[in-house]
Amino acid sequence: RAMCKDEPGYNNYTCLCRAGYTGIDCDVTIDPCSANGNPCTNGASCIALQQGRYKCECLPGWEGQLCEINTDDCIEKPCLLDAPCTDLVNDFSCACPPGFTGKRCHEKIDLCSSEPCKHGICVDKLFVHQCICEPGWTGPSCDININECVISPCENGGQCIDGIDDFTCNCEAGYTGKRCQHAIDDCSSDPCQNG
Description:
Layout: E1 3-6, E2 13-16, E3 21-22, E4 28-29, E5 45-48, E6 54-57, E7 62-63, E8 69-70, E9 85-88, E10 91-94, E11 100-101, E12 107-108, E13 120-125, E14 128-133, E15 137-138, E16 144-145, E17 159-162, E18 167-170, E19 175-176, E20 182-183
Antiparallel strand pairs: 1-2, 3-4, 5-6, 7-8, 9-10, 11-12, 13-14, 15-16, 17-18, 19-20
């Protein structure tokens, strides 16, 4: 009960109200949820209790007396493969390593589906892909033609023309063969007559 204090004069008194009550006779309950606006944060509902007290009913993803704390949705380590987890409101996001996708990095991506090897065979190695190049090709994507002329295979002044896993020699006059390695025997066709 409230304390009553006599004041000078007839039928004159003052009530000293307990917390949560107001009015001349302390007969009006103060609604703590609307007296100074909703004290609960982040969209929480305020529930009035007795004696001016209240309770906040938090939305999912929030906790604390006023629902001011974002629940850490990464605390249970929901991301597979040790992927980094970012806490969101009532949610989380995983930064999946290459080769994996999905909410928890639980879906394997076929790293060869985009056909990354131009002139070779793609091998999916879990987190990365590897290209096994066809003869004459090199590079991470098998897209660099190996220059077979770099070792100067043509002899006797022949000029090398690079191909795919091959080369051609344009021989100087008087030479023949794949590498211009043979001198032409002009007499081999027996051109002389009547002799």
